[in-house]
Amino acid sequence: MNTGKFSTIICLLAFFVINTIILSVTIADEQQSGVGYGRGGRMSGGASSAREDEPIKPISINFDYNRAKVELGKKLFFEPRLSKSGWITCNSCHNLATGGADNLPTSIGHKWFLGPINSPTVLNSKFNLAQFWDGRAKDLKEQAGGPIANPLEMGSNHELAVSILQSIPEYVQWFSEIYGLDEMYGDEIITIDQVTDAIAAFEETLVTPNSNFDNWLNGYDNSISEIEKEGYDLFKEKGCIVCHNGVGVGGNSYQKFGIAKPYDKDTHTLGRYNVTKDEKDKYVFKVPLLRNIELTAPYFHDASTWDLAEAVNIMNEYQLGLKLTDSETSKIVAFLRTLTGDQPSVIFPILPPSTSTTAKPNRN
Amino acid sequence: MNTGKFSTIICLLAFFVINTIILSVTIADEQQSGVGYGRGGRMSGGASSAREDEPIKPISINFDYNRAKVELGKKLFFEPRLSKSGWITCNSCHNLATGGADNLPTSIGHKWFLGPINSPTVLNSKFNLAQFWDGRAKDLKEQAGGPIANPLEMGSNHELAVSILQSIPEYVQWFSEIYGLDEMYGDEIITIDQVTDAIAAFEETLVTPNSNFDNWLNGYDNSISEIEKEGYDLFKEKGCIVCHNGVGVGGNSYQKFGIAKPYDKDTHTLGRYNVTKDEKDKYVFKVPLLRNIELTAPYFHDASTWDLAEAVNIMNEYQLGLKLTDSETSKIVAFLRTLTGDQPSVIFPILPPSTSTTAKPNRN
């Protein structure tokens, strides 16, 4: 027994020694490269609490998801049979490979129809106060139903989309596992409400934490450079921060495009007015998120520029009535690039095959 | 020192005991569920070697890949900027979510042009003796260049596609890491040859091992049912096996569509004749792979049926001059469904952003 105890101690000791070696190697590496812990740099005492007052808040990581629902939502996000043609998916316009957007002036839809407005990114879209540029959908769930039935987008309708899922036994099983059986009929009846709920659940996971800027907010001093820090200071001083703040760095208010000077590049998109029919809501849009902004050109609802520096200058001119120096613009752009976070790591889903009762795709 | 040795022995003994417990739990689980090892069922003595003579060969798993090249190829496979519109990717028509095909009669391309022929699956395509239905590309690398420059497909051209990659520093770095610097200029010059080479390298990894049928071939008796086995016997007896054999269960010969009876459903697609201009190659096509066939409706180069049973009957009628009973057809279909293997597990790539010198997408 004594020998047993002794050998246990030896085992533990060996583990301790090995771990100490690993740790010291890691620290040595860090010191050598001057990087500090991970992307962030070493944390300095007190810095973290000081930055809790900053108007931009870091994205917190949440693991409290309904995994089965998120997995189903992911399948639906990549499901071409939700479109009339059997070819267009949510991901077609909100491509997770390219910042959650399609990087086109306006999206391509059914029969190559071109949409009327630039597609916003799906990344971090849960931080928006409402969805679409004009806020006509109150949340992601309500948004998800729109494109499926929009003749310029996926070109289908809710009845057809649901009937296709209903014809595929795997979907019937997954929906009933998550949403239960139909109360009235005791049957497995998929509803559009469930479809959009699952898509929204997946989309809510599409956040991009650990940006250099968030790491700085969290107290890792070296995760942004001096220039980037100066850019952030300018971003606050010039007034950009008034609209672009919070977790999403935007997305939490509606603002008129053209506060300081009427916006003359696009005068036919009426924005929030389409929802409220209130004259003062003409040219009012939801303030877009600035997270991952370097990945989602072209910019603005009308995609009027592909260049982030030009976008900053347009904002300053039309919203703040300011003209920035080249140095100021480039510093703000440098700051904006620190808002790019970890892109969602998604395993491409495998979808179940159609059956003899599945409606055929219609490319016309 | 003796104590040191002794404690080592104790440590090893503890590991052995723990592993034995884990193993016995696993075996108990298997016995309880009656599943045996994995999908395959328990192996019976001698069965494996007996099945080495079967005309269909299992897909062997290969880990001998150039990982960096495969990763680059994956990015390119999902890269919309290889198309003129900046919207269509290899995956648009060879969707890894749906059996490596688009499950459309013919593919949708640039400006919603509809292609002339059904898109074959990319899965297991390395087992084809050549690529395209008419075999006009000798391998996957040669194939990959086609759709990029086809005005009905991705609508771009090789110069434009390469110049776009060249304008993105991350791509320049990845290509030079894999292919080295340009010999003549000592510079990092991306070529279309490298682009198609990397795409082909990724596509070569897209195999689907571990189908129930392959497990049976490998000696796991219970991995196919009696009915499925009878279906396989019929598949051989009726003569399907003459063309559909080997690792791909097809893909290794050209055959006339209409050997026993002229194929009257499509008389304008000339097939191999377009390549050879030899009169006897009219209506001759590469025999398609039957692996994962249940996932890739509609069937045949002309997509003349969506129903696997009907496809089996058409083949028997036009190729073999046979009329199957319903029971025979359904047994063969049951066998064909055992050819569905593990679908490739792919982490959706994150693509680098365009720069100010990247050519803009052109949707027209």
TrEMBL record, chains A, B:
The residues listed in the UniProt record as binding heme c 2, with positions renumbered to this chain, are: C240, C243, H244, M315
The annotation note on the cofactor reads:
Binds 2 heme groups.
Q: Which residues of the sequence carry a binding annotation for heme c 1?
A: C90, C93, H94, H110
Keyword list, A-Z: Electron transport, Heme, Iron, Membrane, Metal-binding, Oxidoreductase, Periplasm, Peroxidase, Signal, Transmembrane, Transmembrane helix, Transport
The residues covered by the Cytochrome c domain are: 68-176, 226-340
Which cofactors are named for this entry? heme
Compartments it resides in: Periplasm
Protein name (record): Cytochrome c551 peroxidase
Instruction: Indicate whether Iron appears among the record's keywords.
Output: yes
GO terms for CC?
A: periplasmic space
TM ranges: 6-28
Which gene underlies this protein?
A: ccp
Query: Modified after translation how?
Result: Binds 2 heme groups per subunit.
One Gene Ontology term of the molecular function aspect = heme binding
A Pfam family reported for this protein in Swiss-Prot or TrEMBL: Cytochrom_C
Query: What coarse category fits the chief subcellular location reported for this protein?
Result: periplasm
